[in-house]
Design brief:
Blueprint lengths: L9 H21 L4 E4 L5 H6 L3 E3 L1 H10 L3 H10 L8 H12 L3 H6 L9 E5 L5 H13 L3 E4 L10 H22 L5 H23 L10 H7 L1 H5 L4 H19 L10 E6 L7 H10 L2 E6 H4 L11 H10 L7 H14 L4 E7 L12 H9 L3 E6 L9 H17 L1
Parallel strand pairs: 1-2, 1-3, 3-4, 5-6, 5-7, 7-8
Helix pairs in contact: 3-5, 4-5, 8-15, 9-12
The structure holds iron/sulfur cluster.
The site of iron/sulfur cluster has 12 residues, from helix 7.
C-alpha cells in the first residue's frame, strides 16, 4: 500500500491539538477561564474576544468517528429517544458522555470533555446542533444561547446580515453575566483580525492543491484543518498555517506530489467518513488518484471577517457559507472549484445522518456532470456511523469510477 506522505508540520499540529485540550481540561477543573462550547461555525471570535476558552463538540464528534468509538456509542443515545437517522456526531457525542468514554483519555490522559459554563450555537448548518446543545444545557444546567439563521440563501442581502448581527449582539449580555466581565471591543477586534488571518492562510493552503500534481489531498486537509477549527481567532493558528503553507510551497516548487504518479483528480462533496479516512486515502493513492478539493475543508474559509466591523462581518462570514446557501449557489460554487482545481470527476458522499451536508439527493450530480462534462459517483455512507457504510461496495464503486475516467 502506498504510504501517506508525512508533513514536517505534523508534530506542531499534534502539539497544538494537545495544548488545546489540556488547556480546556485545566480551565474546567479550576473554574477559570470560563469555558464556552461553540458549534463549528458559531461565533467563536466573540467568545474568544470575551475571554472564554472555546470547546467544539463537533470536533469531539469527529474524534469519536476517527477513533471508531462512535459506532458503539450511538446506540446509547438511540436508546434515549434520539433517532439513528439524526446527526451521528450528536448521537455518538451524547453516547460518549453517558458512557464516560472519550478518545481524549487515550490521547491526552483527560478523563472527560470540559464542563461548559455556557453553550453557544449557530443553526447555519442544521437544527441538530441546537438540539444537541440544548441537551447539554439541561444536563449541566447552564445557559444555552445562539443564533437562528437564514437557510437556502441565494444572494446575501443587508437585511440578512442585519438580523444575524443583531442576534450575535444579543448574546453579549448573557456572556457578560456568565464570565463576570464586560465586552472589550479591542479584544474582540483582535480575535476577528486573527480569525481573518487564519482564514486567508487556510484558503492559501487549500489552493496549493490547484497545482498539478497537487502537494495536498482532501485526506491531508481534514487532519490539517484542526487549528482552523479549534484555534481560529488566535495567533497559534496563524503561526501554524504560515509554517504549513511554507512547506506546501516548497513541495510545489520541487513538484512533490501528495499522490505519487497522480493521473486522476477528484472533488469530494459532503462529509468525510471519519472512521475510514486512512483506508480511503490509501485506496485513492493506490489508484493514482488525488482528491484535490472538497466542500468540507472549505467550510472554514470565512473571507468576510473584518475587525473594523466585528459583528456585521461575523454575520456575513457565517451566512456566506456553502451549507446555508441555495442550490443554484452551490452548483456554481462546485463548478468553479472543478475548473480551478482541474478536476476529472466528483465523488458525492451521501451521509445517512447528515442530509445538510449531502448534496446528491436532488439531482445535482446529473446536472453538474452534464454541465461540466465530468462523471459523478455517489457513495453511501456516514460521517460516524459505520453501520451505514459498506467498504466492499465503496471500493468496487470507486475502482470502477476511476477506470471509467481513465478510459475516457
Ligand atoms: S451539519 Fe451534519 S454533521 Fe454537522 S452537526 Fe449538522 S447534522 Fe451533524
Amino acid at each position: 500500500m502506498p504510504a501517506r506522505k508525512d508533513f514536517q508540520s505534523s508534530s506542531r499540529l499534534k502539539q497544538i491539538m494537545a495544548d488545546h485540550f489540556l488547556e480546556l481540561d485545566r480551565a474546567a477543573k479550576q473554574g477559570s477561564p470560563k469555558v464556552a462550547w461553540c458549534t463549528s461555525v458559531g461565533p467563536a471570535e466573540l467568545l474568544r474576544g470575551m475571554g472564554y476558552l472555546v470547546y467544539f463538540p463537533e470536533n469531539h464528534g469527529a474524534l469519536l468517528g476517527a477513533s471508531r468509538l462512535a459506532t458503539d456509542l450511538i446506540p446509547t443515545a438511540n436508546a434515549m429517544g434520539y433517532s439513528p437517522d439524526i446527526c451521528s456526531y450528536l448521537t455518538s457525542d451524547i453516547g460518549s458522555y453517558l458512557k464516560k468514554v472519550t478518545p481524549l483519555t487515550r490521547a491526552y490522559g483527560i478523563e472527560s470533555v470540559p464542563k461548559p459554563d455556557v453553550l453557544v450555537y449557530n443553526t447555519n448548518q442544521c437544527r441538530d446542533v441546537k438540539d444537541w446543545f440544548t441537551w447539554y444545557g439541561r444536563e449541566f444546567d447552564v445557559p444555552c444561547i445562539g443564533v437562528v439563521t437564514h437557510r437556502e440563501v441565494g444572494r446575501v442581502e443587508e437585511h440578512h446580515i442585519g438580523s444575524i448581527a443583531r442576534q450575535i449582539r444579543d448574546l453579549v449580555p448573557v456572556l457578560e453575566e456568565v464570565s463576570g466581565r464586560k465586552l472589550d471591543m479591542d479584544r474582540l477586534k483582535e480575535a476577528v483580525k486573527l480569525s481573518k488571518k487564519c482564514t486567508d492562510l487556510w484558503k492559501s493552503v487549500l489552493d496549493t492543491a490547484a497545482n498539478v500534481p497537487s502537494p495536498l489531498t482532501f485526506f491531508d486537509a481534514t487532519i490539517h484543518m484542526g487549528p482552523a477549527v479549534v484555534a481560529r481567532g488566535t495567533q497559534v493558528a496563524v503561526d501554524y498555517y504560515e509554517e504549513l503553507l511554507e512547506e506546501l510551497d516548497e513541495r510545489v516548487s520541487f513538484g512533490v506530489a501528495a499522490v505519487q504518479g497522480e493521473h486522476v483528480r477528484l472533488y469530494w462533496e459532503g462529509m468525510p467518513i471519519w472512521g475510514k479516512l486512512r483506508n480511503l486515502s490509501e485506496l485513492f493513492a493506490g489508484l493514482k488518484t488525488c482528491v484535490a478539493a472538497s466542500t468540507y475543508c472549505n467550510s472554514w474559509i470565512f473571507e468576510a471577517m473584518d475587525p473594523e466591523e466585528p459583528f456585521e462581518s461575523m454575520a456575513r462570514a457565517y451566512l456566506e457559507l456553502f451549507i446555508a446557501r441555495d442550490e443554484a449557489y452551490k452548483e456554481e460554487y462546485i463548478k468553479d472549484r472543478c475548473e480551478q482545481f482541474h478536476l476529472d470527476g466528483i465523488v458525492y458522499h451521501d451521509a445517512k445522518t447528515c442530509p445538510n451536508n449531502s448534496n446528491s439527493r436532488y439531482g445535482m450530480p446529473d446536472r453538474l456532470s452534464r454541465e461540466l462534462g465530468i462523471p459523478a459517483l455517489i457513495l453511501n455512507g456516514d460521517l460516524n456511523d459505520l453501520r451505514c457504510y459498506s467498504e466492499e461496495q465503496a471500493t468496487t464503486n470507486i475502482e470502477a469510477f476511476i477506470e471509467q475516467i481513465v478510459e475516457g
